[in-house]
Here is the input.
Amino acid sequence: MTSPGNELQVKNFNLSIEGQPILRDVNLTFPERKITCIVGPSGCGKSTLLKSLNRLIDTTDDVRTSGEISLAGKDILHAKEADLLELRRRIGLVPQRPCPLPMSIYENVAFGCRIHGMHKKRKEMNEVVEKYLTEVGLWEEVKNRLGSSAARLSIGQQQRLCLARSLAVEPEIILADEATSALDPMSSRTVEELFVKLKEKYSIIMVTHTLPQALRIADYAVFLYLGEVIEEGDASQVFGNPREELTKRYLQGGFS
Here is the structure.
């Protein structure tokens, strides 16, 4: 759960892959307990930036970085390998496509807790599973089949299950990489509404290609173009009265 001072900052951050610059001199401070939407045309570095925030980009070959990323004032860009598990607990990721683990609904939610040594007693784990399935609006739908395979859930249900799995380890920040792009419109709205509710407890940073989605739910907006932050600020200002000509062109449909 986010507490005052758990601020995520990016300073003079640069990233290249196989010698190709992807992100250039990125400077951002993400507001706490708000929804930040990162928008921009395809291939501009949005997902790369998002995955840099909890070091998941490290799994990509030949990545080079410079600059700073800090959480609560502490460097995470150069965190030791042993600290990455804890970092990814604190900054969870909901991916583009649902990725339930090949196990039961119950064990999907409990999985992260077991890895981190949390809630070792069965009664405690039962309470955690119910709490977070309830938080994502899934408990009533699955409470009588917790032992069945998560693969049997609908795509929308699977994405909410993945969100419950992320929340169960008590993160401070939730990253969402196109988290509704694989969902039907109704399921997509359900997840959007969940994020709006969850920002009372968590900071949420979303990448979205869907500008109407960002207009609906963003409190803060970042416009990224060719790996550079062109404009960032309160969503009402960025979307309603952008300062930069490139931002205006993007909002008017000038980019793919």
Summary: The beta strands are 8-17, 20-30, 35-39, 63-71, 74-75, 91-94, 173-177, 203-207, 220-225, 228-234. The chain has a mean pLDDT of 91.
